[in-house]
Design a protein that fits this description.
mainly alpha, 4-stranded mixed β-sheet
């Protein structure tokens, strides 16, 4: 059995080119999606920072209101104590003392609130620092990925153009009927050809009947009975058997190797 005919050589190369072109197109389509994914993450980090900054402003505003309320209560206490010095009866004195006690309770509540607000601000400060660091790191990562994507896209586009040109030049060299069959099977299965190796179809990994295997080794063009792909035997890789037939007297279990 000699080398496979030129038709199969061309079809095998055509399938390789189709695979390369498919992978390149997939990669070219995936690259902008990946960059958009990174940009989306960066936007989420920016939103987190904005939310934390607003929370910090809210806490600062709350403490300013508390400070104003604290001064108001202190002023009420000072005024009530002054009035205690000039009251004319016990009822007025008792009322003023109640006002002072209430204002002192309010001062305690306000001071507790200020302390809680400061503790919340400390937590927000730590979260904000971490968020800003993450945002800066992600910004640098995005710029690196954009540059890498630009370089890889140029290379992949150049390869795609090269493979497409070779494919366009190769297809007219294949018999029209065989090319139509190739296109139909490739559209259905993804690949149209499958190497027959070790009495097995490498496309679906199903075993081949001995008769089919022998016919393939004799140079006949056949399809896999399981997946329907066009089978071929690469005699440059497939070891020869003395009888030329599976099941012959000289066959051994280890006759077929990679």
């Amino acid at each position: 059995m000699g080398l496979m005919d030129q038709t199969f050589e061309n079809l095998i190369r055509l399938q390789q080119l189709d695979g390369e072109i498919r992978q390149l197109r997939t990669s070219l389509e995936a690259t902008p999606r990946r960059i958009r994914g990174i940009e989306t993450e960066l936007a989420a980090h920016a939103k987190t920072i904005s939310t934390l900054e607003q929370r910090q402003r809210d806490e600062e505003a709350r403490r300013r209101r508390d400070e104003s309320d604290l001064k108001d209560q202190q002023a009420k206490i000072a005024k009530s104590r002054q009035q205690l010095n000039i009251v004319q009866n016990q009822a007025q004195a008792t009322a003023l003392e109640h006002q002072i006690a209430f204002a002192e309770q309010e001062i305690g509540r306000i001071e507790d609130g200020e302390l809680e607000s400061m503790e919340r601000s400390d937590v927000i400060d730590r979260e904000l620092l971490a968020a800003r660091q993450q945002h800066a790191s992600h910004t640098a990562y995005l710029e690196t990925e954009r540059a890498a994507a630009a370089r890889s896209t140029l290379l992949e586009q150049a390869d795609l153009s090269k493979w497409q040109n070779e494919r366009s030049a190769l297809r007219p060299q294949v018999d029209e009927d065989r090319l139509e069959e190739y296109d139909r099977i490739a559209a259905a299965k993804g690949t149209a050809l499958a190497r027959a190796r070790d009495q097995r179809c490498t496309g679906c990994q199903m075993g081949l009947r001995p008769q089919l295997w022998n016919q393939l080794r004799d140079g006949q063009s056949l399809k896999c009975e399981s997946c329907g792909r066009i089978l071929y035997v690469d005699n440059r890789r497939e070891p020869q058997i003395e009888t030329g037939r599976v099941g012959g007297a000289s066959d051994t279990p280890n006759a077929h190797t990679a």
